[in-house]
Amino acid sequence: MAKRFIDTTIWTQNQWFRKLNTKTKLFWFYLISNCDNVGVWEEDFELVSFILSEEIIKDEVYEDLDGKIYAISDKKIWIRDFCEFQYGNLDENNIVNKPHQSYIKLLKQHHLWDIYKNPMSGIDDVVFRNHRL
Question: Do 128 and 71 form a contact (C-beta atoms < 8 A)?
Answer without folding.
Answer: yes
